[in-house]
Hints:
By secondary structure, this protein is an alpha/beta fold. The chain has seven helices and nine strands, in the order E-H-E-H-E-H-E-H-E-H-E-E-H-E-H-E. The protein has one domain: NAD(P)-binding Rossmann-like Domain (Rossmann fold, 3-Layer(aba) Sandwich), CATH 3.40.50.720. The protein has helices at about 20-30, 45-55, 70-85, 110-130, 155-180, 210-215, 225-235; strands at about 10-15, 35-40, 65, 90-95, 135-145, 185-190, 190-195, 225, 245-250.
Amino acid sequence: xxxxxxxxxxxxxxxxxxxxxxxxxxxxxxxxxxxxxxxxxxxxxxxxxxxxxxxxxxxxxxxxxxxxxxxxxxxxxxxxxxxxxxxxxxxxxxxxxxxxxxxxxxxxxxxxxxxxxxxxxxxxxxxxxxxxxxxxxxxxxxxxxxxxxxxxxxxxxxxxxxxxxxxxxxxxxxxxxxxxxxxxxxxxxxxxxxxxxxxxxxxxxxxxxxxxxxxxxxxxxxxxxxxxxxxxxxxxxxxxxxxxxxxxxxxxxxx
Length: 255
């Protein structure tokens, strides 16, 4: 059995204190990494996540910072603090996201732009600020969505922003690979249960929506945040040392 060990590595997870991002932070810390998690506004949740990360890995100091990634000055200042505290970055996970639903023709300009401000421009701000601190062989992982690949009614702005993320990652892989062997990949979750428990142990209590999702998924179960976090762990480890520029769905084969 292969055990992934990230001891001695450190990095940054945006949107790293809630939902899938929290699980990613905990998984990377549990594998031995030092983690800095960015969050937008929930101080209590951020403090709770920091305690959880510290319990998962007591061999190094972990960090949480409140940072609006759409604010370039805030991002620059905060990433510098992380980079200097850690002495470099071995991974960068771009999980922070914003969505907007509704018909495209009924959407106002602000609703259209919000996902781009966070998902695209915010990611650009973080990558730009973090680039000088990325160590040789570092890994960048973008968290995308099936909506960025498949047209989904009501998700025009969100899907378009995630499509931009997919292309951004593919270009970055070509630009950063020759410099310091930096890898850039995309993890694209499907419908994902974000709670701490695994609902697949009790399918008899699934909601009608969950039953419909599982019935149209090849593996006939629900996806969890652990499924996504384990895939990110693979991309942050040396097991994926010759994998870059890839888009990987984590959706159980759902069509």
